[in-house]
Structures are given as structure tokens and as C-alpha cells.
Amino acid sequence: MMIMKKVVSIQDISCFGKCSLTVALPIISAMGIETAVIPTAVLSTHTGEGFKNYTFRDLTCDIPAIAAHWKSMDLKFDALYTGYLGSPEQVEIVSDFFDDFGTVDNHIIVDPVLGDAGRLYAGFTTSFVEKMKKLCAKADYIMPNMTEVSFLLGIPYTECYDEKYIKDALRRLAELGCKVPVITGVHYDDLQQGAAAYDSENDRFYFSFDKNVNYRFHGTGDIFSSVFTGACALGMDLQHCLDIAVRFTLDCIEATVPNIEETWYGSSFELCLGKLIDYVK
Ligand code: PXL
Predict the structure, then answer these.
(1) Is pTM beyond 0.85 here?
(2) Which of 7, 52, 75, 239 has its CA 20 to 30 A from that of 102?
(3) Which residue ranges have their beta carbon within 6 Å of ligand 1?
(4) At 80, is the pLDDT very low, low, confident or very high (cuts 50, 70, 90)?
């Protein structure tokens, strides 16, 4: 009998729009991993480009009760994975969840969802960024994009950088207190794109690059961090986690390009789940 790995994903449900839990749940499940969820808010759509007047129901108050129930059942998880969080209070409650469910041998993965293209997402403020920095300190892995790097480090946003810049940023991200920062969407030119990581315990850098496709779709960060989380829970080494997350994110982007009119709000990741299943065989 194979004991299945178990992950809990803590983020919102954007009912329409393909991001956060509607991406994490199918992707991590496709990797053969049991995926528990804590929905932190219910939104009619995500808050990104193109959607206006979305609804937002905050579920922060439910999280401690869910955690207490699970604690009474002595539930254990191989990875705790958070994405978009809706308020500073919610970040604090999630931080308590890490204290309750973090163990020496499980992985805490924080995707510090703050913004994209140099700007914070709607509703986020600098005090929210400060709270997110504290949550990052409790994580084994964080996976910001370059916009999030700029807000976490308080440095200007740029898409013009070299390997030295990325290595310096990774070292400074580790100083926030996380063990392994991973920067996503790294590209030194138009030919390649990928991710860079720094294992601060071994003072080693890791890189994974694949083909660059010059399109940006909403939700690709969530795809990357979901696959990375799954790979981590399965016990893959850091290089392998990066490689599979970069590869699958590219698969999803390539599958979306022909559907761009139809799914401008998210990627066509569903078309690629079969490949993901093969990648983890
Ligand atoms: O993809 C990140 C994300 C998740 N959840 C919500 C969002 C976003 C990004 O805009 O708005 C609600």
C-alpha cells in the first residue's frame, strides 16, 4: 500500500477566473496528492485586470475553528501552502496555523501574492506587505515574482537585471527569515524564462530555465507554486521541484496562446493536466 502525501492549501476561491484554489486543487490532486483546502475568502472573480465589481466574502473567522477541529483529529500534512490572503488579520491567523501544524519534517510554502507588473493588486497596502514579510519569515520556501520581490525588499521594480542582481535579491529575501527563496518569472533576455532559488542553509543557488513565451496570463504564479508544492511534498529535490514547476508552467502558457480570446482571465491549464500526471510517474 502506498501512503498518499497530504497537502493543505490555504487561499481564496475566486469562483470564476482560474487562480488560487481552483488551480491549486486540481493541480496538486493530479500529482497524486491528497489536497485539503481552507478557503480564506470567496470572490465572484479574481481581482486582476479585466474584472470589476467583484464580490468578496471574508472567511477569516472560520479559519481558527477549522484549525481547532483538525487539531482535535490530530491531522498532519506533508506541506502547508498559502497563496492569496485577503487582509492583514488573515495573514496573522495563517501564521498561527503554521505554529499549530508546522513540524520538523513538513514543508511550509508561502507564495507572497501581492501584485504583478510593478503594482500591488487591488486592496493591498504597504501595511499588508509588512505582514506578508513576517509570514515569509516562517516559511521554508517563498516564491515571489519580480513585483513581489520589489515590495518585499523595498527596492524599485525592474524587469532589466542580470544573474548577479537575482542572486543579491535571493540573499536578501533569505534575510527575511525563510530558508529557500524562489524568484519566479526570471528572464535575462527574450529567449528564456524560469526560476531561481537560493538554499540559504547550504549557501547554494539553483536555476531552471525553459523557453520564453512572450505572453502574460493571470494565474501562472499559482500554477508554478502549486506544482512546486506538490513536488516538494513528494520529496523531490530542489532542482527537480524547480524544473517540473517551470516546465509545467510553460506547458500551460503554450496551451493558452491559441485560446487567448476565450480565456484572457486565466490559463488553459486543464489541457495540460495529463502531462503533469506523466511528469510525476
Ligand atoms: O493569482 C493570484 C490571485 C489569487 N486570488 C485573487 C486574486 C489574485 C490575483 O489577482 O485577485 C482573488
Answers:
(1) yes
(2) 239
(3) 12, 14, 19-20, 43, 46-48, 84, 113, 121, 219, 221-222
(4) very high
Q: Which tens digit of pLDDT belongs to each residue from 158-168?
A: 999 999 999 99
In three-state secondary structure terms, 248 is helix
193-202 pLDDT per residue, tens = 999 999 999 9
pLDDT value of residue 263: 87
| Half-sphere CA count of 1, side-chain side, radius 13 A | 2
Residue having the nearest C-alpha atom to atom 12 of ligand 1: 46
Residue tagged 524544473 (cell numbers): 243
Whole-number Å distance, alpha carbon 12 to ligand 1 midpoint, is: 8
Q: What is the pLDDT of residues 105-149, one digit of tens each?
A: 999 999 999 999 999 998 999 999 999 999 999 999 999 999 999
Residue 251 sits at φ, ψ, to 5 deg, of -55, -45
In the reported structure, the alpha carbon of residue 84 is separated from the centroid of ligand 1 by a whole-number distance in angstroms of: 6
Domain ranges of the chain: 6-272
User: Quick one: which atom of ligand 1 is closest to the CA of 43?
Assistant: 12
Report how far residue 27's alpha carbon sits from residue 153's, in angstroms, rounded to the nearest whole number. Answer: 30
Q: Which fold is adopted by the domain 6-272?
A: UDP-N-acetylmuramoyl-L-alanine:D-glutamate ligase (3.40.1190)
Give the integer Cα–Cα distance in Å for 196 and 206: 6
